[in-house]
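Changelog-adjacent note: as of this version, every example in the card shows the full chain rather than a window. The one below runs 198 residues end to end.
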Amino acid sequence: MGAFQAMTESLVMPRKMLRATLIATVLTLPAAALALPDGEGRELVEGACASCHGVNLIERSSGNSREDGGYLASTMIGRLDPETGEVRLVVSPRERSRPYGLKVAADGTIWVSCNGANCLLRVDPETMEVTEIPLPETGTTVRRLDVDEDGIIWWANSGLGRLGRYDPETSDIQEWVSPSGPRSHPYAIAVFDGAVRY
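Full-length structure tokens:
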């Protein structure tokens, strides 16, 4: 099946390749899009990092650059075949979804959290087809998720202090305030031994 990785603002590369690749220190900025100035070199810039990263790869061929200088960053999900080294990237159907956490269910389905939009992503492990599951709360973003033994998807919404669950069989979605309160900032979640821990 290969190894899966949610591709965000940067790509991991071997050290010897990194020396031969342009890198740039970028400022930590709000998630809002920034307009790049016209001129030479614009096509090399991936974009400003909207999180706590300090060094980013700015290799145009590593992603989906647009002709207007924009870049579809933080929307890709990738699969690495460790035997051949082949990397296959697919783009999330939701712009700025920021794929973040990733879990593989018992049936092989890959579930990806959206840390920039109110959705979950389901990835077919064979075809790499991505299906968006919209979440009803507008402010919901999913940082981390887990899949329980029954195939139910559980998530932590750290920004709103909420927890949620999605049943892929019934399409039932529930979300509620964390028992620790709306300011609790639940960062991660794990489901085992019949209990949800966050």
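Structural remarks: The helical segments are 15-19.
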